[in-house]
Design a protein that fits this description.
single chain; 229 residues; alpha+beta; Diaminopimelate Epimerase, Chain A, domain 1; 2 domains; 15-stranded mixed beta sheet; 6 helices; 15 strands; 20% helix; 37% strand; globular
Amino acid sequence: MRDVAREMNLSETAFVVPRNGGFDLRWFTPAVEVQLCGHATLATAHVLWEDGILAANETARFHTASGVLLARRLGEEIELDFPAKPERASPAPPGLARALGVEPVYVGNSAFDLLVLLPDEATVRRLAPDFGLLRQVPARGVIVTAPSSTPGIDFVSRFFGPAVGIDEDPVTGSAHCVLAPFWCGRLGRNELVGYQASARGGTVGVRLAGQRVMIAGRAVTVLRGEMLV
């Protein structure tokens, strides 16, 4: 599976097989297996419905390294039911500010990633990290975020994961398992809209429900093919 993911050379490649009561699901970057992934789960659910493996009104149930994850169709959107991964304040690792090229306002440590609060949306958007230095930071990835100045958007973010073979991920569902409790706590609301400001960025709706985060997004099929192994 790792070799196939390396050949695909995408942020994550999903591998799914049916089992009683749902599907087994695993995710690989071009370098390593990861424990939680949003957009590849969303894409997997989309294909199961589009290909008629699941009826349109059925909930997709995935058995994963992060427990059972659910996906439901809500009109044109797909809602993922993921575990919340709240961060805790922690000292900035040595070299973090130098790797990012900016001094963090706040640093938190979650189950997988570091969360770095920056002063404003403009700083997040223009960030140009040194990926060689960032690879040495002891975390799966680094989430940078700031309050949004764009109407209709509550917060912006970007995700860097050079340590796991992804310099920058376009849109990162698992990062929103950290971002949702962080921003819901700060803004005093349980439903927010985030924008991940990568070159191929996207809008992500989040809803905090106790120890779970509901993540809403859309998927389209752009390519079909066969791989000989």
